[in-house]
User: Fold these one by one.
Assistant:
Number 1:
Amino acid sequence: MPNSDKKITRGSLLVAPSSLLLLCFSVIPLFMLIFFSFINGNIGPDGSIAGYTTNNFTMIFSDSTFTKLMFKSLGIGIVVTLICVIIAYPAAWGIAKIAKAKNHNLLIMLVIIPFFTSQILLIYSIMVILQAKGLLMSLLGFLKLADPATSILYSNVAVIIVLIYEYLPYMILCIYNSIEKIDDNLIYASHSLGAGWFKTFVNVVFPMSMPGLLSGIMLVLVPVTGSFVEPGLVGGSNGMMVGSLINSQFSTVLNMGYGAAISFVFLIIISIIMGIVRVLMSRANRSIGGA
Amino acid sequence: MSKSFNRVIKVIMVLTYVIIFLPIAVIILMSFNNNEYGMMPFEFSFKWYQYLFTKSELLPATILSLKLAVSVCLVTVIIGTISALGMQYLPRKILMFFQPISQLPIIIPWLVQSIALLLLFNFVGIGRSYVSMFFGNLIVVLPYVLMMVAGRFADADRTPEDAARMLGAKPFKVFVDVIFPMLLPGIISGALMSFMVCFNAFCMQYYLAPFGIRTLPIEIYTLVKVGYKPDLNALASILILMSTLIVLALNKLGYSAKKLFG
Amino acid sequence: MKKSATILLALTTAAALMLTACSGSSNSSTKASGSSGDTGEKTLVVANWKGYGSDADYGAPAFEKLYNCKVVHQYFTSEDEMLTMLQTGGMGKIDVILPNSTYIKTAYDEGLIQPIDTSKLTNYKNLNDTWKNFSDANIDGKTYAVPWTWGTTSLGYNPDIVKDKITSWSSLWDPKYAGKIGFFDDYETAIMTTALYLKEPDPMKPDLDKVKDSLLQLKKNTKVLWSSYDDYLKPYAANEIAIGNMWTGTATQLTKAKHSVAYITPDEGTIGWGDFWSIAKNAPDYDLALKWVDFMTGEQFQTAFATGDNAHCPVNNLVTDKLTTDQKKDLWIYPSTPSKIYIEQALDTQTRQAWLNVWNTIKAS
Amino acid sequence: MSNLIVNNLNKSFGDNKVLDNISFKVEDGKFLSLLGPSGCGKTTILRIINGLEYPDSGAVLVNGKDITKLSAEKRNIGMVFQNYALFPNMTIEKNIAYGLKLRKKSKAEIKEKVDWALKLVHLEGMEHRKTTMMSGGQQQRVALARALVIEPDILLLDEPLSALDRKIRSEMQYEIRNIQQKVGITTVFVTHDQEEALTMSDEIILINKGIIEQQSDPWNLYNHPVSAFASDFLGKANLLDAELINNGDNWLAKGNGWVFPLEYKSGKVGDKLTVAIRGEHFTIRLEPFENAQEFTVSKKIFSGPTCKIMGKLGEDKVELTCISLDAEKCEIGGKIYIMPPKVNVLYFVK
């Protein structure tokens, strides 16, 4: 058969295992989630359903809790992602281009080390650093910037710091993955044309690292917006995020229908945000490339 | 790049590593502190290491967690690499369809996904079991590998593959000799990320593990009422020590291996 | 590149070596504690909080020796997840569960628990009457839950920081302590405590709007919303919080960790809670479950449970009488158990959802 | 060794026809160039010969054996790619030995063959170098060695020199031709650079928009192009519009402001013509001579041994090429008299 058809069959054969897995364990649960969001209350132990209703959705938008939390969580998500990008680019650049070639793998693996402990423990150790008379506070006190007895713990700032710490390695890895491929003499070429490091970054490095940046944003923005552990431990009294709302529906009061409905709306909003990010990125890429 | 710019980058890089390893230092420090709560007063003691190896149930859970993470990571890397390779042969319109689906497990909140999976497994009859826990973790980790490996293909130079074919290499040989080395950095990043995510995926393991079986995240999260004893710090310090040793050994081994196989 | 190929190989072999053979670990049975091995001997699956008495060495291990069986603990992170476990495939696998006083009725309504034959329980007769005859525990003549331990979520403060004498819940609303308050992140406690502060006739059926306004005010003064001993102990030890509601157990742990704490029952009364043992519907081993409940409420276990390092108030009257004054002081039941206790009772699903929405709105404001 | 036969190849990607009925034959040991502008389909022909592409119709035969449908790895054809396509993760030695390892040759034989190949391309002693640390010319030679070491039936070269700088390129042109003759391998060489084709090939096929314009040896292709495209593509030719006229027995081409005699081939009086005359075919003198035409010089472009003189012949712009010594004499703005010999005035009836 013609060459191109042979290719497609080989391609689909190779993709088959993962698409099968994705179908059974991700697409079906998605439909179950959509189905759940229309049931009233829970599924009984023997699978009986109390009845179908759409007031799960009306309940979401009846009071402002969800919308307020959603915007707040998105805000935190965007702030965390941006700061991660700002820190990750120079770090990834340093590892990929400045460190000696033999150390690349070593430096990248060292970034992952914190995750061999446990998320909870990392949060606790950061709490120890941020707490009153802790490391940070006494340092700031020393620099006369803040009173050491107070602490920024139990506030949204603390939640942001913890989330940045947790998701920075993902961003570094993604950007490193793209930057590592950039040919060195592309950069020398841009320099020879008189571009300083900033212009070189904007015109050469940034567009080339776009795919890595996109996946980095995907791996940071989405989980951060939906997180519920960090706000619970570190957020203090006004630390609640939309993730905690979803979590409360499932583990504080067993109302699967409402919980599923919130998750479904959350899912839609996140997909729209990611769609917008993709469009913005491709337009930025085109405007830089002049295409 | 200009010398001064390199120096600035180096400083930022060092700073980033300090930020990353500061909490680690705190964890290790607190593992030697006799006092359970807070830092002060600091009395040095190995109490928690003895507690870890005697009474605490953290060790068996850690071993199970590591085994799960390694097996899931291996299987995901294989499936992920194969399908990233397959994606290169598929036309754009199928890819436009496959791409969002492959990122679905990241977008759906894990809590809801794990409960839905549990009900699915109950419906199928497997219910809470190792198999369901294995697949639950596999599906959540697969997008990471797919993204990293497919990323390597993004704008890679494909002509060495043709060159290898011209020299008589069959498709599988072409993969082993040319494509695999090119993908390797992506595979390694993907493997590390999937190991990392699987090692900490509480929701997937909490709802899918058989009754009475506990992986490390379950062991830690269910301490929520009683609170954490520093034996957790002791365990974490050991894990950090071992993973750093492995990383350094690999780098050393990797480096010298380069001379051997060069 | 060649180097990276060897790195990947080395990484996997090193990891595999380190963890003993990783032989198809996805279905190898491991020696993780409590693996429900069906090696012929009887097995009992107990759903409980981790580290909450039943898995102590005087708990399950002693029971295993006594009845030559295997006890498997299934931990949960909230009472509701305990019910979810039963609903999502746990029925027929879990023997006994530990519902709190607010969840017995819910578990009954959802058809998750079965009646307990109290005639077979040797220790049932010496249990504390108030908790034994708790309304939700006995539904239309049958006993569905046997009390195990109880406590209060009352007002506690750090006398070193809070100098003046505290006698009423109103001090939580006192701007003097704003930013120094730690409050339990639980919708039921929040609303009932506020109802007590507003002197509502029945704390279980308060006027939600009034409660909502004063709760909003309380939240503004609150620094930390805690949900476990640790969440409270860390900020308390770091003096970030000085006053707030806490479990009796927290107060006990604080005194044992040499932090000064005063734990009082305010004039308006306080919130009481009880943990009960219930037997899950079609539990695999009903008789063994009965023996477990009996053992848990027996003198041997209750004395150890009431005097260990994180002691809890016993329900067995024989044990309570034998406690020394110091032990009673530790359990804050000296000279006598607090009188005006409002026990948290079950809520029907609508009120429960309504209360949670109020609490979420407060937290999100 | 072996000969290569290609019979009426047709290929289209979607609805754009890339190859239209391409047929040619390459004798054993001969060096054929496929010459044409980029996008004319010459690389596609190469990819069909080596199996990386399949034709819609037509056949490819090596020594009479039809390999059109055979998969690339079974064709035993050596190929050198435009960007060399060396394996980045292997050293020079490993790159060259790769094909032999696949053919399960013994270690000794591989060592011997690799040394032969390295000597052939003058890279002895560099076997442990990393490919990424070598110059373009060296990488090109490694690619050539890698292709030749497996003793292929046919050698294909896809614009191998386009990435090299001027000086190394002419060196490599000579070296590739030299190696090819020493090994005596049938070779198909794809290029868009006419000078490369002329210096290296036994025979050239000129391709334009998927159709063979002309197939002949370099000399005839250069001096007797069969079409306006051919004449312009090989060496810069002046293309002028004219009209065929006849006065008595000799035929002339009359453009606006000039007339040149020509050898009659076809066409009748009054036909519209495209006249193609190479810059170097004009005889140039300062004073008028027998039926020479007047030419006003506007610019001179000096390029070493030769020099280009731009100017106006009547109304048409013409570019002359002559050796720099002669060019000295003509001044910018001055008048000179030019006359191409009859045999070099080619014309094509529109």
Number 2:
Amino acid sequence: MTEYVLLIIGAVLVNNFVLTRFLGICPFLGVSKKLPTALGMCGAVIFVMTSASAVTWALQHLVLVPLGLGYLQTIAFILVIASFVQLVDIAMKKFAPPLHAALGIFLPLITTNCAVLGVSVLNVQLQYGFLKAVVFGFAASLGFSLALLIFTGLREKIDRANPPKAFQGVAIALVTAGLLSLAFMGFAGLVK
Amino acid sequence: MTMVIQTVLTIGGAGLVCGGALALAARFLAVKEDPRVAEVDGILPGANCGGCGYAGCAAYAEAIVLEDAPINLCAPGGAEILSKLAGATGQTAQMAEHKVAIVLCGGDVENAPRKFDYNGVADCQAAHTTGGGDKACPYGCLGYASCSRACPVGAIEIVDGIAKVHPDLCISCGACVRTCPRALIKMVPYARKIHVMCSSRDKGPAVKKACKVGCIGCTICAKLAEDEAIKMQGFLAVVDYDKELDNDAVIEKCPGKCIVRI
Amino acid sequence: MSELSIVSSSPHAHSGSSVRRIMLDVIIALVPAVLVSLYFFGWDAFRLTTACVVTCVAAEAASRKWMGRNIGIDDLSAIITGILLAFNLPPTLPTWMAVVGSVFAIVICKQLFGGIGYNPFNPALAGRVMLLISFPVFMTRWSEWTIPSPIGMDAVTTATPLGLVKTTIGSAGALPFDFTGSAMLQLFVGNQNGCIGEVSAAALLLGGIYLLIRRCITWHIPVAYIATVAVFSGILWIHHPQQNLAPHFHVLSGGLMLGAIFMATDMVTSPVTKRGMLVFGIGCGILTMLIRKWGGYPEGVSFAILLMNAVTPLINRATRPRVFGAPKGGRKQS
Amino acid sequence: MGAIKAKFSAPGGVHPAYHKDLAAEQPIAEMPLPASLVISMSQHLGKPATPTVKKGDTVLRGQVIGEAAGFISAAVHAPTSGTVKLVAPVPTAAGPRATAVTIEPDGEDKWIDGMAPCPDWRQLEKKDIVEKIAAAGITGMGGAGFPTHVKVSPPPETAIDTLILNGAECEPYLTADYRLMVERAADIWEGALIIAKALEATNIYVAIEDNKPLAIAAMAEAMPEQAGAAHVVALKTEYPQGAEKQQIFAVTGREVPAGGLPLNVGIVVENVGTTLAVWDAVVNGRPLTERVTTVTGGPVAKPGNVLARLGTSSADMVEFCGGTSSPVAKIISGGPMMGFAQADMSGPTTKTTSGLLLLGPESVHAYESMPCISCGRCVGVCPMNLMPNELSQFLEAEDYETAEAYNVMDCIECGCCAFECPAHRPLVQHMRRGKAQVMLNRRKQ
Amino acid sequence: MAFYKELAKGLWKENPIFRLVLGMCPALAVTTSVENSLGMGMAATFVLICSNIVISIFRNLIPAKVRIPCFIVVIATFVTIVDLLMNGFAHELHNSLGLFIPLIVVNCIILGRAEAFASRHPLWLSIADGIGMGIGFTLGLTVLGATREILGAGSITVWGDLKWTVAGYEPMILMILAPGGFIALGCLLGGMNHLQAIAAKRKGTIFTPPAHLDCRSCVMCKFGK
Amino acid sequence: MMESLRLVVVLTIICSVAGALLAVVHDVTADPIASAGTKEKGDAIMQVLPPCDNNPGEDLVKVDADGTAWTFYVARKEGRFAGAAFESVSAQGYGGDIAIMVGVNAEGTVQGVQVLAHKETPGLGAWISGDKFRGQFAGRSIADTKWAVTKDGGNIDQITAATISSRAVTEAVKAGLDIFTANTSAITGN
């Protein structure tokens, strides 16, 4: 139990996917303009990263490893993740329209987000078992969501700020993300 | 060799499964969107300036495809986008006449006195509703740069207390026209260079009191201009931009010095 | 009338408060702590404080000039940033590092966002954390403590009490501290090692009271912050007195007083509603203890406040007051 | 009979310097007819009246010169007899231009044969009272100028049980209502009974800030015996106790729903001046042609409370009060918290001109506004519990949707936020602009 | 001529990092040293050129509907090839780039160029575009990497032992840590914007800094559509 | 329907071709990758061991201690035991696990220490890879050294401001040495 708690704390706070691992920067910068949008994105990311962890773990350990085809990891993962998300998108539209209305537009956006592929590859690199892989996927997406929500709050403030012309837009957003990352350094050492 | 075969089978199989699954799933889901909308949207420049009168480029794209809206409304896109749109929609269209915005007021700090010291939000709308605006002339440009801020391309600059549009930078989106609380900004053909730089509808004496370069309604220019290219609207001379006007006499003879060539 | 009358929107009366006056009050409130730092650290305190203040003001002026804005250093906020940054530095720090920290604080954390009011993070804290991460060796090198320490630190005189805890727990057993009244009194007046401005709880409290009287701060953030730390550490202490410090020790040591009174209450980066302030203070307290107890750094105040700065917009959003006349319980949501 | 203390207290509020001593002890003085009167057709909230006279017409006092132009509108009457000199737009106190009729008095001040006096108003039907009020062109005289006949004829399904007479006069400097209460307490009470009859209200409260003991005493003294449910309520002295919603809460503990009206909680609030005008109209049959205005401020030589004809220019009133004795930096129609600054002293008195305030350079604050430093003081003092800091920033960024979601429309423009703001931000102006823009956007949809 | 034009645009006019603001993840993650930046840049350039070539050649054979999945497969193939080659022949570098080699697959630049350029232009121009964009990307990474390494480690490592150290400099470790990445990129971007604004002013045009990532050339979300 | 079929077919073909290509590349790079991996460890082993004439990477002695398997790479010179290297991991690092390779000579004193993998803070804990810190282990034996950092009263000089990393390495070295000492006979083969 402690192991999993530490895993979650580690992935959410200490090695935050966005702020220390630099995964998923594009949606982090792109979908942080308005809180409701960011919330939808968080839901979609949590769902996709958790289930992608499960799916790719199965792919790796039930197909690729037994066949000795570990080097096909990248291509197989990306194909399967992309198709999986697409299928979920289609199925959700059909069977759960309200859910699709809330999360649907974000699903294709994160199909091939590097955080999703990243968590799958990391699961393999860190040699996690199935449950650990799924928990890690979930925790990583929680970390992403936490960073995204905090950043969205900041972004709404910064969008009303008055930076010099050259720093308007992405530049000041990056500096803010840097300061946020600086604050997150405080969690260093929280989990060994 | 076994390795190669295994690899091909695995990845090929993955492709087959994924492709098959997607194809099957796609069959459940009839594509509702008109693909042409996406295509047209892709052609449009994505500036979302609203100059076409629709809420952003996507809305305009939808209007073009579904409502047969004219394709020549995108001013920022220019001829290049127009030809692409023509190719995509099969419509043939001429570019709408190139129009640019102009601020019809010449009452800069030199010429138009203020009636009080305004202390508040530096915004024309706010100034206009606080004591009626600090300019003595109730029609003149307040110079608080609301239009300049509204301009998506930074083509408006405040010079000596009044707004000036750079005609070459203007993309004729009309954002400034909608913003000006005193309705001073007009879209005029780029080719027309002579303007009456005043919008005051007051009578001569009142104008004179409020501004040194106001139109006092003397009608001299209206008489001089051929083809009624300048008409009187009440006490204000107004250029009819549909007509050719290239007559330096109107500029020289204007007693208010409010007709200029830009 | 020869001159034009002034027209502005209502109201035409004003309470007379001004940003400059608030900043001046904060500076006045910092004076006791400055004096204490000069007493305990002497030349080093003077050197660092001067370096930080001068650099901050100069950096503010220079960056504003570069951006083509009015210089605007007369709001005095850069001076406060300088003093607070200096307060968060160890006395042995080379001057040039203090200068680097000040430039970072003012230019990157403040002026890039547009200057006063727009910075999402407390500049002094961000500058301090930047230095801590960039130059960890220098930022954790404390001066040789000359005045005999009454709190059982004689064995290792070059560490802060909290730093000592970090390195002691896990290797030794019980903590080498004395929690008796007289030792606590020493801690209270500031006879301990640490950053130059954080040592004396007494001087900081004095400043805090002045700020409260002048209405520059409200009690919510400091009280919530300190109480949370006390409760959190109290629970740990009761649970495991051998492995944990007593709550009053936690409250009096490290940068907690400085943080709770002067840094967490920074208006620009803390919530505006009373409820939000309480949430902010409690959050700071929990994070501080989390980092002090389990984190890699001995002291967590700076990080805790920075992290809460980051969530301040969200807190503001979540604690919007109920509009007068709106149905009770439910807020009108956006 | 004494006053009862207010039980509740609305959120927020500030304590500006009151400066009421300048004019408080000056009895109401009637002003002689000026040389010219400019009567605006837009002296009330709602549609401006339609002028019914033209240049050259001769008019009698009390003659209708502007007809109500719709349901929410009010008639305008000639304040004296004379000749119409001009019908043309002039700037109003708030800024925008509106049609005004200029009358040159003939000096005879002859009344028209209009409404009949009706001392025996108790015999009147509800609707007759409303008709008389409408015919007299009475509007709220506290500042907003809402047509009174609309207020006293609530929709039939709304039961009104309480009438509150607003005598708080929380605006600094102003003493007109105070003088009225001290000098005309009995008439005000009678006016209140007339309105209460029209409303079928059973309770009448007179709400007065506790820094006006004389007014409280006078109103308590004159309290009618027969109305068992009449009370004088002493409010805590705090701005804005005179704001309708806040006053209702302070007096009765009822909260007017956001975006709603007092009648939603069964209450109507009337200014004491309005009440007196109702008495004058119903009992004496005289339309609203004059009002009491406080002329005050440092530069005014002899500050006082002036009974002036509608249309009297500020300059004339200041002249009547001895002119100015020191430089004037700001001319304000109304009080310092919610009044409108004027470019010059040409502006005419209207039904809503509760004061004319001149400020010298020493008390005028022309500051450069700074960025918001999020001190939160505006949030603390906002009587509507809004967040002016956030709102002003949304509005600066022209984000009207978010501003609307943050309830900008509930702002009552009382000015507490801007009064407190250490960064000297023009918060009220932002709100005003925001409200206008939101209304505009709503109308577009 | 067209060849050079396509080649040159990636360097500055459409520099992927500073103008299009694409490929942020590797730009932040691997730029802790010049060596890593160069390695990442070259790996990405290789994939970019190869995928541009293949896609340009087969652009008329791939049905429009499945083009995105096909592009991804092609790109993933070349990424795997780079991964394998680097693992075998530049093991150290492979170790330090780690996770970010497989992640080249989802780098917007590559798929973006495939979709926006290679699938619409002949082979020759596509190669030019690939080279230009690749070098532009490498350049961007290297500038960022050099900044961070000099400030954060006081050295410049080009390859293995080919390394210069700034003597007597106390490095700001922050710069090679995560926050330093964000801050350095933000400041560099701001600096570049400033230069461009000056250049634009000289030419009499207007420069607006990128307000968001240039999603227009990223077509990830069109997968399967 | 045709459209869908085409989708499936094209995707399958492309995948197959890609697969074939990859298989070939993999075939070509398999050996270099494998040798690069072993070489890394092999280099570390050789660096911490005294000169020898066998291949320690293949001369393994496995020892089981408290359920943990330790592998000792034995170096021999002219057939005689010259030293042994072992990999030791500490979970007490600041950023996570620290893996080190320790070499012991025939006398049982430390020959050398190499850091294989760590996630310590660059510029701080990362200095455990530096010669200055690693170098001080050489020549120490289990008996003549107090195996703790100076701050804890031991003989190992910690890296300034990185006590935790230093402590972790020290503990890892000691843990391995303990195992080595306890199993000397099995490892040396005497």
